[in-house]
Amino acid sequence: MTTWQIVILASVICVALKVTGYLVPPRAFEHPTVARITNLLTVALLAALIAVQTLGAGQSIQVDARLPAVVVAAGLYALRVPFVLVVIAAAAVAALIRAFT
Amino acid sequence: MSSPRTPEERTALRAALAVGLATAAYGVSFGALATLSGLDIWQTCFLSLVMFTGGSQFALIGVLASGGLTAGGAAVTSAALLGTRNVFYSIRMAPVIGPGFFRRAAAAQLTIDESVAVSTAQTTPSAQRLGFWVTGILIYVGWNLTTLIGALIGDLLGDVSAYGLDAAAAAAFLGLLWPRLKVRQTQAVAVAAALVATLLTPVLVPGLPVIVAAVVAIVVGGFNLFARTPREPGEST
What we know:
heterodimer; A: mainly alpha; 2 domains; 4 helices; 2 strands; elongated; B: mainly alpha; globular
């Protein structure tokens, strides 16, 4: 697939998902287990993406400047620092560590 | 502006403004990260204009950044799986929005975490409607403007790792996850999914570990594991 095909295909699927809820009778999705799995799916995917983004290097695991940066980010989120500032701080921590090692 | 508003509607407007502006601001990080993970400015803006659901957008560029074009299928699947929660949001919003093809089509595009959260927090039907539309429109306009700004910045910056922007992407995902970690079940799923994805990274092609980690949600959700149990009042952590 080209980048454009990936971008368009994923976008069309995401729009279709949003439209679905306005078209289907709600009963099809009312089961509590289905609702619970959907909610947890979001959590699982985001957590997995964090892990891969922090530790993955192609097809291997690598501990480097990204890990302390993410730990700092977690601390800042716990202190209720706004999203944008945390993202910038994480980038700065990683960049500083790379500059001095 | 001069039309009379009920106190409930004014509350909805205030919430919409606060949430809308805060959310729109982090479109900058999406735009910058998207161009740094290999997308051009047009592709980056296309995602914010059409896909318009932050989690899926970050997921797509995250998987592409680590796996390249060969991870395209995994990138699309990750984005789609993260988008499934919007089905439930739109089911919840359908009665609030009411009938009418064009109104529903516009509402569908604006159905995201924040617009639904602001709407469902309101107490009267008119405030719920107002909260949804104002939040949705504010974020749509703001998110697309800040995406463009971020994309232009990212385009100028160049090499990713030198600036620590790969760490910024992980921090951005963490920011999306953080508000969801309030109960034990989601905490357990988050830890297990991160572990599964890490352990599978050396074994599977890039992109796939993230999708396999989603199985954790299906197992825990299907059997309702780690749900809060009322019979342990003095439990220690």
